[in-house]
Structure prediction request, 305 residues.
Amino acid sequence: MVWQKTLARPVTFTGIGLHQGRPATMTIFPAAVDTGISFVREDLTPRCQVSALYDKVRDTSRATTLGDGSAVFSTVEHLLAALRGIGVDNALIQLEGPEVPIMDGSAAPFTELLLEAGLRPLAAPRAYIVVQRSFEYREGDQWMRVTPGQPRISYTIDFPHPLIRRQRYSVTLDTVSFRREIAPARTFGFLKEVEYLKSQGLALGGSLENALVLSDDGVLNPGGLRFPEEFVRHKILDAMGDLALLGMPLLGRVEVGRGSHDFHLKFIRQLMCRKGAWRLWVPPTYNREPRRSWSFTPAWEGAPA
Ligand SMILES: [Zn+2]
Prediction:
């Protein structure tokens, strides 16, 4: 049995938002048992709070964006991967604007500062979604699969670029492996694509400080790559951030081929509809009946059977 965790103290991050290119400030506060991860915009009137759950996803083009009414919370995936990667179950994330700061394009700055702040165990055990039967979803050349087993994620990508081509990476989902192998992998983009996005008023904050930028035959960042397969490691980071939108850890093996935020979310919705493929595991010493305050229950209670 594992106790739920929150932060030992609040932590503030400042940086810029990837898409608007404006300063972005975020403070993460400790939160109570069973409240899960949620985002709040205190700069809006009225203030708006949204749970980090897959049914709150508003947009999946280029990043994962949560929303409620007119309030948006953009580029949440690297932060959510960091929180899940180090085992934070409950936290309240306050944004001063629509975007989570992009930092260096990886989850390392989040991971390191959160670990420095320390985690605090709470007086209730953690619940899990346990994979009971294999489930696979395909669309074109994209595929994603879960199978029963120890938590592990494997990812394969294929890009017609001399630095990438076919890359595959597989990692056990524990804090040490996440911190060392996945958190430091940065987001990446192709120079032509970045130029186009900027001409459309998007990715205005994108630079060599917060993304790997690929030319036709190499990488423009003066420091080069952090790992030879940094690209596929970053895809694992993205998938972890999207899977965190289940609201609790997934106990099982995950495999993905040529995924995207959009595809990860499609898979999650399909999986949640396959009731026989997974079950909710709540520790026997704990109240079996999910409490109304559990922020994650509505997500699949509302899912079609
Ligand atoms: Zn990413």
Remarks:
- The radius of gyration is 18 Å.
